[in-house]
Amino acid sequence: MLEQPWELNGSVAIRPEPFGALLYDFTTRRLTFLKDPRLVAVVEGLAMAPTVGEALDRAGVPAAERAGFDAALHRLAEQRMITRRTA
Amino acid sequence: MTLAPERPAATGTRLVDHFEHGLDAPICLTWELTYACNLACVHCLSSSGRRDPRELTTEECFGLIEEFESMKVFYVNIGGGEPTVRPDFWEIVDHAVAHNVGVKFSTNGFRITPERAERLARTDYVDVQVSLDGATPEVNDRVRGAGTFDAALRALRHLRDAGMQDTKLSVVCTRENIPQLDRFKEIADEHGAMLRLTRLRPAGRGAEVWNDLHPLPDQQRTIYDWLVAHGEGVLTGDSFFHLAAYGDALPGLNLCGAGRVVCLVDPVGDVYACPFAIHDRFLAGNVRGEGFGSVWRDAPLFRELRSPQTGGACTRCSAYDACRGGCMAAKFFTGLPLDGPDPECVKGNATEALAAVAGGTRPSPSQDHSHSGPVRNAPVPVTIARRPPASPCDESPVGPGRDPLTTG
Description:
The complex is a heterodimer.
Chain A: E1 6-8, E2 12-17, E3 20-25, E4 30-34, H1 37-45, H2 52-58, H3 66-78, E5 82-84
Antiparallel strand pairs in A: 1-5, 2-3, 3-4
Helix pairs in contact in A: 1-2
Chain B: E1 3-6, H1 15-19, E2 28-32, H2 58-70, E3 75-79, H3 89-98, E4 102-107, H4 114-122, E5 126-131, H5 137-144, H6 148-161, E6 167-173, H7 181-190, E7 193-199, H8 206-213, H9 217-230, E8 262-265, E9 270-272, E10 283-286, H10 292-298, H11 300-306, H12 320-323, H13 328-333, H14 351-357, H15 404-407
Parallel strand pairs in B: 2-3, 2-8, 3-4, 4-5, 5-6, 6-7
Antiparallel strand pairs in B: 8-9, 9-10
Helix pairs in contact in B: 2-3, 4-6, 10-11
């Protein structure tokens, strides 16, 4: 995943909250909470970054914390909150 | 709606801890469109029946929807009264959908015709929730009125036949229908619907019948075990977090969200802390004056609810972390202190306090839109009559007296 281009699913909206953000998928009606503002920055930055790894760099995620962010992004992918960018 | 927190690593703070401080906008907003209703259910939370002449106009409803959109309130639960009796109901739903505000509306089903069901099935972002409070006509019609079981089942059939996805079948759990939980699940399954169980609240007309209808102690355990066994397959709207004191937390937030993540907008635009708390004590403001966003963000009542709460006597209880003292509205309308145990505390800690308020110090309702004359389908309460006054002073000489035989 880290070497691939990803983006927020087109049917998902982000709402900022004091603790981070909530994501809402209008298609599945599923609500998910991002409890770390840096994860919000990563998710928002996906579409503009060539790869997921680059989005993590741009959001200032240090190498030591990569594994935790990687796991969180995988869960978001399973829920189809984020999808692989094809174009 | 599924609530699932995502975080990069365990940072120590639970989602509910964040929620206690309140969100920038509600995630579960109930909007009651009208106090008018073609029924007269004995346990109506909003004491509905007659339309209020001050109800929001179509234009005001449109404006409110646009404010929801700008606040990213992605989803509203529309109810009433019976919302479909508003002549502009479908126009309001269409306006919400066009503005990215998804709708789930509650209905007794009388107006869900095959044509309407077809149209609903073709509309994204609209969910339908049909109310049914007994799995047989005998149990259901005694609280909802004659013919209401058949009307609800007819609506479910129309929706299924039209190909509607994810219809909700919504049941208020009562002493009489708890033995029917399995049958409710079968009815839902037969109609491709999702079962939703909620708690009987002593709010509105529900206060009059709560003593007779709320679950017996062993039935509380039945509900809890049933919910644990069915897990995510049954919706509850976080109704039963007071039962978490039995042991494992139930799916959902397990937190009172009043004024923090939920609120209610009533037909005249009044904003209350939650759908079960239509009373001046929990009135935060009105959308007509300040606008909804301002009430949500700044109302003194909501700020108070978002500040650290004292658990009162409950903090000494081993289960406090699980049940958080239970439901604020249930305590208020049964006359219990808000910082003490829930009237249905599974540890029995409210028993003495409840006995002490039996003398008639329950708060009186601050609004009542009940029908004042006969209603076509009105339930005929044989054993479920309003509680007799404990003392002559219990009856207000100037209050809106109601005859149980005509209005239930």
